[in-house]
Design a protein that fits this description.
Layout (H helix, E strand, L loop, with lengths): L5 H7 L3 E6 L14 H10 L4 E5 L6 H10 L4 E7 L9 H9 L2 E5 L6 H7 L2 H6 L23 H13 L2 E3 L5 H14 L4 E3 L9 H9 L3 E5 L1 H4 L5 H11 L4 E4 L10 H14 L4 H16 L3 H4 L4
Parallel strand pairs: 1-2, 2-3, 3-4, 4-5, 5-6, 6-7, 7-8
Helix pairs in contact: 1-12, 4-7, 7-8, 8-9
């Protein structure tokens, strides 16, 4: 009988993955590695605390609600991403999401102007060919002609602040993210997350600026696996920003990756192998997510 890898099992106990993609995610013709139910079962077997269900295209509150009834020992949360599918910065969509229990709001991802310019719609072409022909060709841009946040963006941020939502910056540019962080600080929105900034080309200075404004910094394992981000960069951000403001997530929906709970387990063990202490890793994958999601850590702490 193979002995359990005790260290990695301890590291992932109670962990909350704040960026867990649903299955199927983008198209029925592209199946993920596991279904949502299998994902949750794996998380349960690894004694995780829970996860936030993410989709680029559609709100996940209903999925989260139904899955929560099947796995009551986990904390399972829904979210909404403001791509064109929901009308971009649409207050109606955001308010409705809040009423259905959304805990996380992501700004545009594949529909963001910055993403369209830098990735040339490669994911649309690969997974959803018809959408690559649709407008808006230049994607969703957050700033007006004066370089300030548009009114609808401010309105959505105010709704998020009032509803105590976690806000992820998505795939908007670092410059747009800075404006979002400045306005968030102004209105008292304290749950802002700079979505995988290294993979989006943000500089150390830009990451530091947002962190100084109170923004959490997300560090995903997917981009390490894709070799878009080097482990040295991950460690550098943790050192410069401070582990108190960092999150460790998976952000994976490809069929070739391990199921996300096992992927997260690999990531935590990987970072420990490169020198991060257990307490530091636990803060980034457990206490920090608990703080963002409004969870009392003692309620789910297994004592590991």
């Amino acid at each position: 009988m193979i002995k359990r890898a005790i260290l990695e099992d301890e590291l992932i106990a109670d962990a909350i993955d704040m960026h867990a993609h649903v299955y199927p995610e983008v198209s029925l013709s592209y199946q993920g590695r596991v279904t949502d139910g299998q994902w949750a079962e794996s998380a349960q077997n690894l004694k995780m605390g829970g996860f936030v269900m993410k989709s680029h295209l559609w709100p996940t509150m209903e999925r989260a609600y139904l899955l929560q009834t099947q796995f009551p020992q986990l904390r399972i949360y829904g979210s909404i991403t403001l791509n064109a599918n929901v009308g971009g910065f649409n207050p109606w969509a955001v308010e409705s999401a809040v009423q259905l229990g959304a805990k996380v709001l992501w700004f545009p991802t594949w529909g963001a102007s910055f993403d369209r310019e830098h990735h040339e719609g490669k994911y649309f072409r690969r997974f959803l060919p018809p959408l690559s022909k649709l407008s808006p060709e230049k994607g969703i841009y957050l700033l007006d002609s004066a370089g300030q946040l548009k009114g609808e963006v401010k309105e959505v941020l105010k709704i998020a602040q009032e509803a105590d939502l976690v806000v992820g910056t998505g795939h908007i540019s670092p410059a747009e993210s800075l404006k979002v962080a400045e306005f968030s600080a102004k209105i008292g929105l304290e749950k802002l997350v700079f979505t995988h900034p290294i993979s989006l080309g943000a500089s150390s200075r830009e990451i530091g600026e947002l962190a100084n404004l109170g923004c959490y910094v997300e560090l995903t394992y997917l981009h390490v696996l894709l070799q878009v981000v080097k482990v040295a960069q991950v460690l550098e951000v943790i050192r410069e920003v401070g582990y108190q403001k960092c999150l460790l997530t998976t952000d994976a929906f490809f069929s070739w990756t391990p199921p996300a709970p096992e992927m997260l387990r690999m990531y935590l063990g990987f970072l420990h192998f490169y020198g991060l202490e257990r307490e530091v890793i636990r803060r980034m994958v457990y206490q920090n997510p608990c703080k963002l999601l409004g969870i009392d850590p003692g309620k789910i702490d297994s004592g590991s």
